[in-house]
Specification:
Blueprint lengths: L1 H44 L1 E4 L8 E3 L6 E8 L3 E8 L7 E6 L7 E8 L10 E8 L6 E2 L1 H12 L3 E7 L7 E5 L6 H12 L6 H4 L1 E5 L9 H16 L5 E7 L6 H20 L8 E5 L12 H7 L1 E7 L2
Parallel strand pairs: 1-10, 12-13
Antiparallel strand pairs: 2-3, 3-4, 4-5, 5-8, 6-7, 6-9, 9-10, 11-14, 12-14
């Protein structure tokens, strides 16, 4: 009986030792967890954040133009965020983060859509990685730019995270505030929808053709010249418009030369009537010179009856 009691007491002692060891292990785990949390704090303390406050947040749209639309947002002490779209046959959208201090080395920035602290319920998500090139302000392509605009419209906060290229211990956070965004965005979308469906490259070099023995343009050429006139009235950066007129070789050389001059001047007068500065336009007739096709066929003669319009930008 005494032996059994001793065995029971020994077992209790061992059980107590096991529980004690378990308590010690749990305590150590808890201490490690606390220490790990403390180690994170310095890293968070080195996060430098740039974002407009609720009072500072302002979005603005450039003066409406059928050539370009820009939606911009100032980021205090950092720079400016810009969404832009330009006239083109294809829809386009671009985002640029114009930094006051451009990158000094190549790296990547994580682009995240962050839910504001005052509106719980939405989950943060990564949208893309943005390349940072040395001495260049970074940009993002059409799909990501439109996605960011959609996130802003829903009240989300697009943010960019990257390591500082001047201090390895610092991490940068740049945010776009959704405050006062919707009204400006509505104006911006309207501007984008009103852009021309062609750009300078589409009309910089244009060949117009004429009906036989007249100074009347063909139907397709009339449409083309209307496009050029509209663009000229919108783009003050165009320095010079050169108009060169030519004929086929049917008829006398002198009458053909006079016809070419008449055609060139008629195009010039058409542009001047829309308010284009006369100093920006030069018109010349060359008669039968510089044929581009044979005059022995109807098609060849039609190609030779032409006016070439060339436009120069600085």
């Amino acid at each position: 009986m005494i032996k059994k009691c001793k065995d029971i007491l020994s077992a209790v002692d061992k059980l107590g030792e096991i529980n004690y060891n378990l308590i010690i292990m749990k305590t150590n785990v808890l201490l490690l967890s606390v220490l790990s949390g403390l180690l994170v704090i310095p890293a968070q303390a080195n996060l430098r954040q740039y974002q407009a406050s609720l009072e500072q947040s302002h979005w603005s749209v450039s003066a409406s133009s059928r050539l370009n639309c820009t939606l911009s947002h100032q980021i205090p002490n950092y720079g400016e965020a810009r969404f832009s779209s330009s006239a083109s046959r294809n829809t386009n959208m671009n985002f640029e983060l114009d930094m006051l201090r451009v990158p000094d080395s190549y790296s990547l920035a994580e682009v995240r859509s962050v839910n504001p602290s005052w509106r719980p319920g939405r989950i943060d998500r990564t949208l893309a990685n943005m390349k940072l090139y040395k001495q260049f302000s970074p940009s993002l392509p059409k799909k990501i730019a439109w996605t960011m605009l959609g996130e802003l419209e829903e009240g989300m906060n697009p943010q960019f995270y990257y390591n500082d290229w001047y201090d390895d211990d610092d991490r940068i956070s740049v945010g776009l505030s959704p405050a006062r965004f919707r009204h400006a965005y509505k104006e911006f979308v309207h501007c984008v929808g009103n852009l021309l469906n062609f750009n300078f490259d589409d009309i910089a070099y244009t060949v117009l053709n004429y009906e036989s023995n007249t100074d009347e343009l063909t139907k397709s050429s009339k449409k083309r010249i209307d496009m050029i006139k509209e663009y000229l009235s919108l783009d003050p950066e165009l320095e010079l418009v050169l108009i060169d007129a030519f004929t086929d070789s049917y008829g006398g050389r002198w009458p053909n030369y006079e016809l070419s001059v008449k055609r060139a001047n008629k195009i010039k007068e058409y542009f001047l009537a829309s308010g284009i500065d006369p100093s920006r336009i030069e018109a010349k007739g060359y008669g039968e010179k510089r044929h581009v096709a044979s005059n022995n066929t109807v098609l060849g003669r039609e190609q030779n009856r032409r006016v070439v319009i060339r436009m120069n930008k600085p």
